[in-house]
Write a structure and sequence with these properties.
The chain contains nine helices and 25 strands. By secondary structure, it is α+β, with helices and mostly antiparallel strands. Among the domains are: 122 residues, Adenine-n6-DNA-methyltransferase TaqI, Chain A, domain 2 (Alpha-Beta Complex), CATH 3.90.220; 152 residues, DNA methylase specificity domains (Adenine-n6-DNA-methyltransferase TaqI, Chain A, domain 2). The strands form nine sheets. It has a six-stranded mixed beta sheet. α2 packs across α4, α2 packs across α8 and α4 runs antiparallel to α8. The longest helix is centred in the middle third of the chain and has 46 residues. The radius of gyration is 28 Å and the shape is elongated.
């Protein structure tokens, strides 16, 4: 719906702000609030449970037995890739040195203030360095709209209600995406372990967790279906992707649940010579060997297309299957539930330290092998079914993006005075 505007406006004199309601003030941020970094706390002092929450630059970090502040405050992330992000803390809590605590000097609604700061995109004022950081002095000089306290509370009430509605819709779409991903996974797992013929006779696999399999299929260890496994090289690279025509080294995140993302690479410095035999090619089967995210370890992908001059890292396996194994079928098998369960057990055990999947563990996994014709049929079936799921997932993600864009626009319009929500906050109108 369209929202009303305030009766009269004036020029704020601030380029990003434009006009503001006539009865609002425009002042430097430092006159409205004080901004002070929190206090240092060691990693050993932060626990998974405790009496008081600990907030860092990116939000909640854990718990401790001491506190630095008591009340409700907006917090600004001071350092790191997410510097300038906004969080809220209330009650007794500990603010670390990476969080800037915003304390009102004038009457301020904490939620109105925090959402205004979020709209200002404070990250753009970070000081460029190896570790980006905010200059509190610089952002303190920024001029902001400052409405009467009654207007602030009306804006805060309106935004609290309306953003909660949008967040609930986003959560519904996120649940839908998870359900679609689970269904997609179930379709893959059933196809690669039971086949496409529901009337095919079955036999015990001899493996309790695998159950019955088609009678004419073979149960084998992975070492019986692959010729060899290759790992690459992880030199000290730049922190950005290689330009077209430059050599790059793949990151472990380039393989994600059957999808190859070539931009997940780091540029190789010109002082280092590439190793051409590690260059990847269309038709390769890649698997993530190690990752900071356990759920990505063991993810496999078939490369349908890739740019030249991208090399394997030592965190990626390149797998060469036997002639009797269709490469895309092998990828589907690796991404199935029976393989995921074996991978999860392997990386949580003593041999798989630090979310690492050893070659020896991978070769020892069990799988089922249909005839080559059935493998090709399963690949074609999964391409069709998975494309349907992917289309629905894309549609749900697009809905999430639109909702989040609307949320951001609504907040910006309300805190900068482009819409008058005073009556809406009082009546509860949408």
């Amino acid at each position: 719906m369209s929202f009303p505007r305030y009766p009269k406006y004036k020029d704020s004199g601030v380029e990003w702000l434009g006009e503001v309601p006539e009865h609002w003030n425009v002042i430097a941020l430092k006159y409205a609030v004080s901004m002070q970094s929190g206090e240092q706390i060691t990693a050993e002092e932060i626990r998974e449970t405790g009496n008081f929450q600990v907030y860092g630059g990116n939000g909640l970090r854990g718990f401790t037995e001491k506190f630095t502040h008591d009340g409700k405050f907006a917090l600004i992330g001071r350092q790191g890739a997410l510097c300038g992000n906004i969080n809220y803390a209330s009650g007794k809590f500990w603010a670390s040195e990476h969080a800037v605590v915003v304390t009102p000097r004038l009457d301020c609604s904490p939620f109105w203030l925090g959402e205004l700061l979020r709209t200002m995109n404070l990250g753009q004022y970070s000081i460029t360095a190896a570790q980006p950081g905010l200059s509190v002095e610089a952002i303190g000089n920024l001029r902001i709209p400052f409405p009467p306290f009654a207007d602030q509370t009306s804006i805060a009430s309106f935004l609290d209600r309306e953003t909660s509605k949008i967040d609930a819709l986003v959560a519904e779409q996120q649940r839908l995406i998870e359900l679609l991903k689970e269904k997609r996974q179930a379709v893959i797992s059933h196809a690669v372990t039971k086949g496409l013929n529901p009337n095919a006779p079955l036999k015990p696999s001899g493996i309790e967790w695998l159950g019955d399999v088609p009678a004419h299929w073979t149960v084998a260890s992975v070492r019986r279906v692959i010729q060899r496994i290759e790992q690459g090289w992880s030199p000290e690279c730049f922190g950005w992707p290689a330009e077209p025509g430059e050599w790059g080294v793949l990151k472990s995140g380039c393989v994600n649940r059957g999808v190859f993302v070539e931009m997940e690479n780091k540029a190789l410095p010109q002082t280092l010579n590439p190793i051409p035999e590690y260059e990847i090619h269309t038709g390769d089967v890649l698997m993530s060997r190690a990752s900071g995210s356990p759920e990505l370890v063991g993810s496999a992908a078939y490369i349908t297309a890739t740019r030249p001059k991208l090399m394997l890292s030592d965190k990626i396996f390149r797998i060469y299957p036997e002639r009797s194994i269709e490469r895309q079928f092998l990828v589907a098998l690796f991404n199935s539930r029976i393989m995921r369960s074996q991978i999860e057990r392997a990386i949580s055990g003593a041999e798989g330290l630090a979310n690492n999947l050893p070659q020896s563990a991978l070769k020892g996994f069990f799988c089922v092998v249909p005839t080559i014709n059935e493998q090709m049929g399963i690949v074609q079936y999964l391409e069709s079914r998975c494309s349907d799921f992917d289309a629905l997932i894309t549609e749900a993600q697009r809905a999430i993006d639109l909702l989040q864009e609307r949320r951001t626009a609504l907040i910006s319009a309300a805190v900068t005075g482009k819409i008058d929500v005073r009556g809406l906050a009082e009546t509860g109108a949408a």
